[in-house]
Structures are given as C-alpha cells and as structure tokens.
Amino acid sequence: MLKLVFLSFLLLILTCNASVQDFCVADLMGPESPSGYTCKSPANVTATDFVFTGFRKAGNTTNIINAAVSPAFDAQFPGLNGLGVSIARLDLAPGGVIPMHTHPGASEVLLVVQGSIVTGFISSANQVYVKKLLKGDVMIFPQGLLHFQINGGGRTAVAFASFGSPNPGLQITDFALFGNKLSSALVEKTTFLDDAQVKKLKSVLGGSG
Amino acid sequence: MLKLVFLSFLLLILTCNASVQDFCVADLMGPESPSGYTCKSPANVTATDFVFTGFRKAGNTTNIINAAVSPAFDAQFPGLNGLGVSIARLDLAPGGVIPMHTHPGASEVLLVVQGSIVTGFISSANQVYVKKLLKGDVMIFPQGLLHFQINGGGRTAVAFASFGSPNPGLQITDFALFGNKLSSALVEKTTFLDDAQVKKLKSVLGGSG
Amino acid sequence: MLKLVFLSFLLLILTCNASVQDFCVADLMGPESPSGYTCKSPANVTATDFVFTGFRKAGNTTNIINAAVSPAFDAQFPGLNGLGVSIARLDLAPGGVIPMHTHPGASEVLLVVQGSIVTGFISSANQVYVKKLLKGDVMIFPQGLLHFQINGGGRTAVAFASFGSPNPGLQITDFALFGNKLSSALVEKTTFLDDAQVKKLKSVLGGSG
Amino acid sequence: MLKLVFLSFLLLILTCNASVQDFCVADLMGPESPSGYTCKSPANVTATDFVFTGFRKAGNTTNIINAAVSPAFDAQFPGLNGLGVSIARLDLAPGGVIPMHTHPGASEVLLVVQGSIVTGFISSANQVYVKKLLKGDVMIFPQGLLHFQINGGGRTAVAFASFGSPNPGLQITDFALFGNKLSSALVEKTTFLDDAQVKKLKSVLGGSG
Amino acid sequence: MLKLVFLSFLLLILTCNASVQDFCVADLMGPESPSGYTCKSPANVTATDFVFTGFRKAGNTTNIINAAVSPAFDAQFPGLNGLGVSIARLDLAPGGVIPMHTHPGASEVLLVVQGSIVTGFISSANQVYVKKLLKGDVMIFPQGLLHFQINGGGRTAVAFASFGSPNPGLQITDFALFGNKLSSALVEKTTFLDDAQVKKLKSVLGGSG
Amino acid sequence: MLKLVFLSFLLLILTCNASVQDFCVADLMGPESPSGYTCKSPANVTATDFVFTGFRKAGNTTNIINAAVSPAFDAQFPGLNGLGVSIARLDLAPGGVIPMHTHPGASEVLLVVQGSIVTGFISSANQVYVKKLLKGDVMIFPQGLLHFQINGGGRTAVAFASFGSPNPGLQITDFALFGNKLSSALVEKTTFLDDAQVKKLKSVLGGSG
Predict the structure, then answer these.
(1) Of A182, B14, E44, E201, which residue is most buried, by most CB within 10 angstroms?
(2) What class is the D65-169 domain?
C-alpha cells in the first residue's frame, strides 16, 4: 500500500521532470544557434552519447609538424553541446610542434600525460610566459592569447587540452596568414613580412594570391 | 630611424596595454568576490603562476575508498582564477571508488589515462547513464548531477576531470549526509534511510547528532 | 498636422521595433537549444502567455511524503523561457517532507506563505545550515547543494521556491539512488549503504536491479 | 581502524574543500565589484546569514500610493549576494498602486498571495500585456520593461516579486522624472509633457529645477 | 614533397575546423531562441554578411522630434547575431530630441561625430547625470536606465550608439505610455498624470483607450 | 499634506535604493577581480565619470605604421567598468595600417567616420572575409579572430571600434612575435618563418633573443 502511494507520487514527479533538460545532446543535422546546436530528443539519448572514444589511439604525426591535434569539440562529441567544456588530444613526435595559435572562444588547461612539452603564451601586454612541462604538469592559457607547444624531449609527448567552452575554436596563425586566398600584398602590409617570405610559406601551406 | 619611430609607437601601445588584464592570478589573501579572488598585481606575475605541478605523483589511495581526489581549483592553482576552467586528478587503486557526488558549479569532462573506470550519472529525469571507460576514453557529466567512478579493473586507474569553472565545488553525498552534525532524525526524515543505517554511517564518517 | 508627422515617425520606429524580442515565449513543439526552447512568433503572443494559474489550488499531498511540488518551469510556463527565472509551489501537510534534493541549474529563494518549515542545506565544505522558517520568512539555497524542507508545525505549510533559471532541474537523492535501474551493487559501492537498506528502498521507490 | 582510515581521508578532503565557496555572503563594508559585494569569511557565516525575516509584517501602506515595496536584494539580504536571485514584498491597500517602473537588471516573477492585482507590462514593440491576477497566480515581466501593479479588489493585496539577479534595481518613472533635480525644461523637452503638469508633479514628488 | 605532406596535415585540420562556428549569421526566416536567431549555413556566408551600409546617409529628421534613430541590431544586421554587440545611428536636426527612453537589454556607449549633444541618464538611486558632449566625446549609459539626447547646438548633430548586445531593445517612455491601447485610466493611475495631459498625448501619439 | 506623505514614501524608497548599484565606476587604485575593477563609492560619482573626452583630437600617426589606436577601455574610461562595452578611436594617415591583431575578450563593431578603410578577418575555418568600407559603413569582427585595417584611400581615415566588453584586450601579432624576449628559435619553430626574417623584425620592433 505504502509502495503504491509512493509510486504514484513518483510518477507525478517524473511526469514533471520528463521535460527537464539537464543536457542538450547536439542534433548535428538540426539548426544551430549562438548557444550551440539544437538538442536531440531526450527520448533517443543513451549513455553512448556522453562518451567519446576517439582518443584511444594516437593521432597521426607523420606530417611536416610531426604532431597532431584531435579535437573532441561539440561537432565531434555531441554530448557536451551546451555544457561549457570540451577537450582535445595532442600528439607530438620527437621534434613535433603545435604551431603558434589561439582559441578565440575559451581558456585552455593543458595536461601532459607522456613525455615533456615546452609551451608558453604571450599576453596582451606583450609579456612572454614559457615553461617546460613534465608528465603530470598542467599549464593554463588565458582565452584568445597566442600560444604554442613543442616536444621538449627525445620521445613522443602526449597531452590533453581542456577548454571552458564546447566550441573554443582554433586559429593557427600560419594557416590564417598563408593557407588561404588572403593576398600576399595584404599579408605583407599587415605583418611587415618580406614578400619572399610570404610567398614561400604560401607555397608550402597551399595559399594563393 | 625607422626603428626608433616604430619603437615609440610600440611604447605608446604598450603603455595603453600595461593595464590590460588577460588574466587574474588569484591573490589568495585578498578579498573574494562572486566572480572569484581579486588579482595579484600583473607586475608580480611570472610563468610559474600559470603552471601546476601537484599532479606529478599519484594521490594517496591507502584509505577506505582506495582512491584519492586531488583538485587543481583556483585555491590550489591561483593562475586559473577567473578563466572558467579547472582540473583534478583521480587515483583509484584496485577496488577504489569515488563515491556518489556532485559538482554544484560546473559540468565535468572525465579522461581516463590509465586502467579502466566504470562511471555514470543520473539525470533530473531519473535516467541512468553508465559506461565502462578504457584508457583514452572521455565522458561528460552535466552540471550538478549525481555521478560516481569505480575502478573497472585489476590495476590502479588514473583519470583527470576537467571542469567549466575555476571552482566547481564537490559535494560527496555520504559526507553531506553522515559526516557532519546534521541530526540523524533529519537525515532519516529526508532520506527514508533506517535509523541503524544512518547511525552506522555517521559513526564511520565521523558525523555527530 | 503635427499629429500626422509624429505618427509617421512612430510608424517608422515601430517598423524597426517589430523585430525586437524582449521575450521568447517557448514553442514547446519546436527545437530546443542550450539556451532554451525556440520562440513562439511574437504575433501570436498574448497576455495569457505571461500568466500561470496552476498555483490556484494546493498540490495533492495524499501520498507517502505528505507533500507536493508543483513546478512552473519553462515546460509548464512557456512565457518565462529565456528570462532567467522560474517558480514552484510546495505544499506540506502535517508531517510532510520534501526529501533531500538539489537543483543542478540554479540557486533557490524559498518563501513561506503559510505554516512553518524546517529547512536547511549542506555546503561543499560539509557545513550544515538549518533554520525553522515562519510565515513570511525567506531562505536562500546556493546552486546545486543538497537541501530539504519539513513541515515544522501541526498545520499544512505552503511555500514558494523561486529560481535564477527558467529550468533549474530537480534531483531528489532517493529517487536518483533507488527509483530507477541503477544496480543495487553500484548503489552500495558508491554510497556504502547496506544491501538490505538499498533493496528495501528500491522496493518502495520502484527501482529495479 | 576502518573508521580512523576513513576519517583521515575525510579530513584530507575537507582540507581541500575548506577553500571551496558555494556562496559569497556579502561583506557590506567591503569593496564592491561588478559581480557584487566581496565575501564575508566563510568561517564567520552561520545559518542566519541565509535567512531574511523582514517580510514577517506588512509594509506600511499609509502613504499617497497606498502601497509599499520591501526589497530583499543583496544590500538587505547579504546571503544572496552572487547567487543570481532576490525577492521583494509588495503590499497594496485598497486603491493601492505600484507606479509604472522598470528593473534594469533582471526579469521578474510576480506571485499574488492575498487579494487580487491588476498588472501588466509594455514591450519594446509597444504592445500592452495586462491581466488581473488572483491569489496564487503568477506573471512574468521581461527584463527592463515598464510595468505596474494595482490593487484589483476591495481588500489589501499582497504579492512577492522574485528576480533573476541579487540586485535587479528599481526605477520608478515618476520619481526619475519628477523627484530629483532634472530641470523642468529637460523633462518637458524629452517627454512632451506640459510645463504645468511637470511643475505640479515636481512639487508633489519633491523635485527641483 | 614537404609541401604535399604539410598540405595533407592542413586538410586534416581544416576538416576538423569546417564545423567550427566563430560566428552565427542570423537566418531571419529560421526559428529564434533566447540566445538569438539560428545560423545561416557557414557555406553560404560571404564578407557581405559582416558589413552594414545603411548608415551611409542620414536618417530622415523631418518629423515632430526633428530626429531619427536608425538601428543596426541583429534584425537589420544579421552578421552580428550572437556576437554581443550592435550599433545605431542618431541624427538630430537643430532642436531635435531623442525622447526619454531605455534599452532593456544592454548598456550603451554614445559617440558624437558631428555637432554637440546634451544628454544624460537617471540612476535607480534617482540621481541625475547630465552633460553636453562635443564632437569626439563619449558617454556611457548603464543598462536599462532612462536617458535622452537633445541637439545641443544650431547645426545638425550626428551620433552613434553602440550596445553590449546584438538586440538591446528600445522603449521610448512616451510611446509606451501614450502610443498604444493602454487605457487612459491605467496610465493616470500609474503615473499620476492628469487626465487631460494623458488624453492630449494619446491623441498626438496615436494611442487609444 | 498629500505632499508630505508622498515625500516620506519617497524617502523610504530612496533609502532602499541608496545601495542599488546600476554602475560600478572603477576605482583604479583598488583591487581588481575577474569581473573588473572594484567600484568607486557612488557618493563620489559625478556625471564626469561617465564621459570620456580623449577622442576630441586625432591620434598621432607620425610613426612607421602611419596610424594610431586610442583605446577607451576601463583603464582609460573608468565609468564603463562592469558595463559590457568599450570603444577605441583609429586614425590612419594615407598609407596607414593597423597591423594584423586580435581582441581576445570581445567581438568588435567597426564604424568608419572619415575616409575609407580596407579591412577583413580570417575565421577559424580559415576563410577570408575582406571588404572596403566607406564613410558610414560598419563591419563586425567576431571575438578573437585575426583582423586588420588599411587606409583605403588618399586621405586620412578615422574609425571607431566598439567592443562587447569593457576590456577586450589587444594582441598585435607582430608585437607578440617580434617585440619581446621570446627567443628567435621559438618564434621560428612555431611560425616556420626564416631566421633572417625573424631577426630583421625583432630588430625593427625591439625584440631580443
């Protein structure tokens, strides 16, 4: 008897709660809003939506920078849509470099889990903050500031970068300047780089103009 | 000549920028506000302020839960004050458990870096989402919901939890119910637990009343 | 003449303003985003959309807890979608209890309008803050922390809880632990409760496993 | 033995948590920041800080508007500083009116607990939304829009207004226009009111110029 | 060779980035959410979406207030949807006035680019802050407070108002009181204005009731 | 009599409001928090605090870039502290350039008030959006993305940039790379620029290492 009464109360509460959304798993095919993707129906959400397994194996570092960035942002990991956090895996083979870049939308916490990494950022006041991180060390990079990572030793380094946004963005300075159709004249005028230097990097990075 | 002129422009800009604060390294002795600690003077900030080295060694798991939580929140890692992110290290010896808990102030991204972890959360709509995570796997826990971690295998597991706040808080349900002076009568009335059960756990967890 | 000129100016302004959205009455059938429901067309909005009349009569307290929670969150009161506030009515018959629970998404202001209520919360630092509130008294519960309400007298108590979010969520600890399919083994491992206790409450609250 | 080991773990956790701030009870004498007052030391906080008892008796309505507004904003109720909510009590004797006003900083949820109230707001698109609320009815007023309350019946009405900010502000149009030193010339030029009307209300409301 | 390898890395990164949304150009025909309009597909976005040319010519000031407000909010300038800023042009012929008004959703920075403007605001604490601005001067108006602008000289004045929201709203007090169907009785009761005054302005501004 | 009664009500309200803070004029000597500077006492605030007159004359463009940036951020214009907006003046003599830069903390609305400006930004997805703006034209630059301005004609151009933050920051790429003590080796490794190019610009911009 007691049980039945309680159950009816429970059902009552659950009916109310059925519409509560603690999360908003992204419907990647739906419309996007400034706050993120629209939500998959809660009825279709399963535990799998909240798990990302893409970091089980290392990123492919057989490229010119000997490094790889594997993001688990909302587009790759729909479960964190709207929840204010995301994460990415960095692999740096010996000699590997994540070139100078910014995340326009969030601050970053970097955690080294293998090897060592020389990393740093430059502030708006033009100060430089550089450190060598060992396994287990963490560094914070304030939102939107230029920073970089370099493998600091002779073995492959692995790190994870966490962000205070499901979609922090990533702007690699070299790609922004030399990897698109921004004209060489505009690049030179706005960076004071020499024409030969700009054209050389445009050629390497596939830029035109 | 060109150089001198440019330098004077640079100095002009730098003077303006000297007051720009991209970051706010916590002055732990200063007053706190709802947005976090007040800031250490930028003139006294060095690269060391942005690095946390407390995760180099494992947390001590020789305790009853065979597990340890080591936070790098703003109080432990002043450099991330005001920047919207933080991180904690979890060590779980074989049989180790991080008991049912919530973070009132932020969502969590959990990354397994060693061993395996069985983990899950319960939603407001009372749904259960449980998964076993292997090394490299990531799970997202929406803000404020009950969740737990259990070592999923025979060896020590290590994980890192990142949060979308420099101070997400941590409320372990058992400690909240049984580890303080909240009277047994109130605990029983509000949880429907039996008196013997409450008194037993209060005894184990050091609660009174 | 004056009037006509002014009117044309007015019309001009009104044309501009026609697209201004001070509010976003929820279209409960439309897609949801992390910031809430999409908006009903302003052309179809009337004063009725901004009024909720569901609190005119008391909630049904003839259940095992002798209490009822009636929410006016965005799903029940579409007019407050996106506006950062919501409200719920609490009815507690003599002996009534709102069991230990949290609101993952917002702080709560509780106002007693009839009878008296013993209420309190537990902080992340494991401190207990309990008070007996009389008619007219208000208590604040910080976001995401465990709290409870108990009828503090011999007559029915009525209170209203206001929240700093249109959808604060509600997680009742007992329902989360014992009212779903979370396995008894996992509950016991993560709460240190005895097997008999867990199974008893699972039976009462309709949980399985 | 078990108990001692657990206790030491508990103490470890508590040491970490000692710096966790779930709340920020206002130190009204300390410096204020854009996010609110600085915090009283948690060590000095008691349950009393989270309770406001100023609504136990009715506001004094023996004045020209036959009404009273009693706020429990952060300056009156320091416990809700930084927590994103606040509340105020409205008393309206028969014939009482809360004149046209706005809250610049938050949306409002109005709850009638005694009598009836005629209330409404005007949108940016110049639409009017007016309703008569009975006991138990709730109306939502979007942030910053002009609204008013009038006693809708023959007995005293009581209502509570909750806000999505600890400090929503209150700007009563009549006081802003006629109750200060804003010159009559400026008032007339910017409102198109007649000089006699402006001077009459300035006289009643204590304005000069 | 080097180039090819780099390019493949670049393509890899670009694939990831293809889903990154730094912006959310409004799809004015799509559903709206509390955070703004849903986004136009990035594939269809061009530089033109980020430019607004509607301020090239002056607003039409041949009306009773000898002034014009031309907004570039999200409805007029879809490119700034979700980006937290907007702008409007003000033209004030000699004698021109922007009547007393508020922006419910954002603070305003006013910049005078031609002529001079007498402007001011009234605070919640009922203080008046009035200044005459010359060309190049800037004034800040805190969110939601009553303010006005008057041409301060003998020639046409031009100013630009920037806002900390893509949709700050605009509520002109006179229009809200006298330019709609809000009944004269309600206006008089909530503003203490005389019946003749209310009816006169209702007549001028096209209000009924 | 009526007047006296009303006045006493007014005083009552004003007492309550005396602690309401619609604004928080920065006390530049006080402690800073993540939400901005602490507030000057409202009793000492005057209309002058809300006005900035530093844009009355043009910035000095007799430098190598033939351009000047004059910010009115919170450090220069304390009145906008905490209010979510700021503004800067740009002067570009013929041939003048504001070099490639980002604002880490806010989106920008650029308004051309004299001459013409060629300007553009590069997205995270590496797309380029460039336009020539004429007098009166406005362009929006999303938060944190690289952008630049070049005088587009034969006469001096003047523009104003408004931001959705009182302190958006400013990071000029060239200064960040070449104008400080970041070692040439690190610059080269993270940008792929040639050693000679880096050393040349370091020499021009005053960098060392």
Answers:
(1) A182
(2) mainly beta
